[in-house]
Specification:
This protein has five helices and no strands. It is mainly α and about 140 residues long.
């Protein structure tokens, strides 16, 4: 189903009420979004994708006599494609979150350096200049 667009696989998945086997039972399409990419146990998207891939390969095993695609072919292929789509989306989101965190950390460091430099400038002011600035702030 690689030729189908995401909305088409999700339309098929929701209309046919696809379920995704996991160690915690069958999951709905919506449930997949709550499953972690990785975990210490087998409740993760990688394990679900491996099971879906295995099921797809089992039904797709080469046959020299039976060449027609069945509804079960479509169902298993869609299960795999939906899981792969969710994984890909979550990986992109994870990378974006890492980038945001790195930028935030760099900005905080730069702000701290800027504060130090500004403090250094203030400490270089003469006593008279400091008093004038204090007076100006009291008004």
């Amino acid at each position: 189903m690689a030729q189908n667009t995401s909305p088409n696989i999700f339309q098929y998945a929701t209309r046919t009420k696809l379920r995704f086997p996991s160690v915690k039972g069958n999951l709905t399409v919506e449930d997949l979004w709550d499953v972690p990419l990785r975990s210490k146990d087998d409740f993760n998207l990688n394990a679900i994708a491996k099971a879906a891939n295995k099921a797809w390969k089992e039904i797709n095993e080469e046959s020299f006599v039976e060449t027609a695609r069945t509804p079960e072919h479509t169902r298993r292929e869609t299960v795999l494609e939906v899981v792969k789509y969710v994984i890909e989306t979550k990986l992109v989101e994870e990378e974006a979150a890492k980038t945001r965190a790195a930028r935030k950390e760099e900005k905080e460091k730069l702000l701290a350096i800027l504060a130090e430099k500004q403090e250094g400038k203030l400490s270089k002011l003469s006593e008279e200049a400091i008093k004038k600035r204090i007076e100006a702030l009291e008004d």
